[in-house]
Design goal:
Elements (H helix, E strand, L loop, with lengths): L3 E3 L2 E4 L6 E4 L43 H4 L4 H11 L9 H13 L3 E2 L6 H7 L1 E2 L1 H15 L2 E16 L2 E13 L2 E3 L5 E3 L2 E4 L8 E6 L1 H18 L3 H14 L4 H13 L3 H14 L5 H12 L3 H13 L5 H13 L3 H14 L4 H13 L3 H14 L5 H20 L1
Parallel strand pairs: 1-9, 2-10, 4-5
Antiparallel strand pairs: 3-7, 6-7, 6-11, 7-10, 8-9
Length: 407
């Protein structure tokens, strides 16, 4: 398509994408909206063949095809088309009609960490940012309007699930009026509307996502979710399918490495991490995962070399700080543990589990006042999480212990 420019933006608001890091003594994984910015192979990048997966570890499961991701039920289509084709709405440009319909829906739509197809997202009126993109895509196809998909840079949102640290980045869709060719030969739309959960005007635009990568992200997101639930056959099937759509998917590659590692095949996991590192030389995630294998196998000389490579990369330090805190706790060096948890909290202050980690380490270190403050913060940040009650009980136990000592 010729070069395009958008001259006017309005927005329909109302979020997300996913990376996973494996914590504890396991590995470091990243997945969901694939990863950070979409990384494509550059000239001179390694052409090493994709490693052969260990199929004996998994039972592949049939999945829906990409076309089904944005398909809607007959009643959902009828409801939208009745609104879109209503005589009263015909004076409104098509892309604005789609935005207005989405605006009505978003009043009922609730953010969820789950990645859902367009049909399921509308059924449950919930989903993450990719789910909302798929819903918008479905309406765009029904109405014949232009749509594009954008990855944005933001302070990522983190959540913990078992031993996986799941990082969510942000994606949104933009719907356009008709393309108009300018005198210079560039194509532009005189009206474009951002569709989102919340206002994203302050976020930096990273990349436009091609349609096939958007489809791949659905499968890689689902792979991350199933990996967190330890449904490894489903996770493998989704990650492999994501890779078949986008062979350069960082998230899918990394998830496949994690799955092999979890099921005991370090050889295949290592080859996947090495391949991933070659395909994405600016990303430290594969090297971190590789270092876990090297450490577990006491290959310290290789580990030292990989660790140096990791230091050279400007990568997110959150997983490193959490792991350093956990290792310090195991060595009963609670002051150092607290210091590392504080460093992690500087990156992800809304991760309530980190406040709990800091509280426990402070308590073990005899710093009960600091522990109490940490428990309060954990309770506050876990406002809508079942863990809140557990934190309240721990705080009550700490306060009771303090009262007995004072008495």
């Amino acid at each position: 398509m010729p070069k395009r420019r958008n001259t006017s933006y309005s927005s329909v608001y109302r979020h997300f994408f996913r990376h996973i890091f494996l914590l504890g003594m396991a590995t470091t994984l990243i997945a969901c909206v694939s990863h950070a910015p979409v990384s494509r192979p550059t000239e001179g990048q390694s052409k090493t063949a994709l490693p052969t997966f260990n199929q004996q570890l998994f039972t592949e499961i049939s999945l829906i095809e990409p076309g089904a991701i944005t398909s809607l039920s007959a009643p959902q289509k009828a409801h939208f088309l009745n609104y879109f084709n209503a005589p009263i709405n015909q004076q409104t440009p098509p892309h604005e009609r789609v935005a207005n319909y989405l605006g009505i829906i978003l009043d009922q739509f609730k953010y969820s960490e789950k990645t859902l197809t367009a049909e399921k997202a509308l059924q449950s009126m919930s989903g993450n940012c990719l789910s909302l993109v798929l819903v918008t895509d479905a309406f765009a196809k029904l109405s014949g309007i232009n749509i594009e998909y954008q990855l944005l840079e933001q302070n990522p949102v983190y959540s913990l699930d078992n031993d996986l640290l799941i990082r969510s980045d942000h994606m949104r869709s933009v719907i356009h009026g008709p393309w108009v060719e300018s005198a210079e030969g560039a194509f532009r739309s005189n009206s474009s509307i951002r569709i989102d959960y919340f206002q994203t005007d302050g976020l930096s635009y990273i990349d436009q996502i091609p349609s096939h990568e958007k489809d791949s992200m659905y499968y890689s997101n689902k792979a991350v979710e199933y990996a967190a639930e330890r449904q490894y056959n489903l996770a493998f099937s989704h990650a492999k399918h994501a890779l078949s759509i986008n062979p350069n998917s960082l998230s899918a590659l990394n998830t496949l490495g994690i799955l092999h590692r979890r099921l005991g095949d370090n050889v295949t996991a290592e080859s996947i991490y090495q391949y991933g590192s070659q395909r994405h030389p600016s990303k430290a995630i594969f090297l971190r995962n590789l270092s876990t294998i090297l450490k577990s196998e006491k290959r310290f000389e290789e580990l030292a070399a990989v660790s140096e490579e990791i230091k050279k990369l400007n990568s997110n330090k959150l997983a490193e700080f959490i792991r350093a805190g956990q290792e310090a706790e195991q060595q009963q060096d609670y002051g150092v543990a607290v210091l590392n948890y504080r460093r992690a909290l500087a990156i992800a202050p809304d991760l309530h589990e980190l406040h709990l980690y800091s509280a426990v380490a402070n308590f073990k270190n005899g710093a009960n006042v600091s522990a109490e403050k940490d428990f309060f913060r954990a309770i506050k940040t876990a406002e809508n999480d079942p863990a809140k009650k557990l934190y309240e009980k721990k705080l009550t136990a700490l306060q009771s212990s303090q009262s007995r000592k004072e008495y």
